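Input (Transmembrane protein):
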Amino acid sequence: MLIAGVLCVCAAVASAVFGFWSLSHTHAADPTQLALRAMAPTQFAAAVMLTAGGVVALVAATPTALVVLVVCVAGAFGTLATGSWQSARYALRREAARPKSADCGGDCAACTLSCR
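Output:
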């Protein structure tokens, strides 16, 4: 359980670092940057879950630690997956609502100009 606990704590640190990195970027209108910034809360939540699982794996008895570790890792993975899906949906909706360029008439495939 020592190895699993240390790996879980390391994954929690990595998730928190990526969350801080996402928040450190300036607020942009680019949908990709918007989706990355929207992932920060879920990355922090996953970091908390992974930290809890790692600490329990390091200090608790093996049967208890195994159950808590599995639940925490599954919860963190589910949180990240759901957060990714939600932020991608939001970014796509925002991109679809953006007005099209007047030069192309909204038809980028038939236009030689950039529609952005």
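The CA atoms of residues 42 and 79 lie 6 Å apart.
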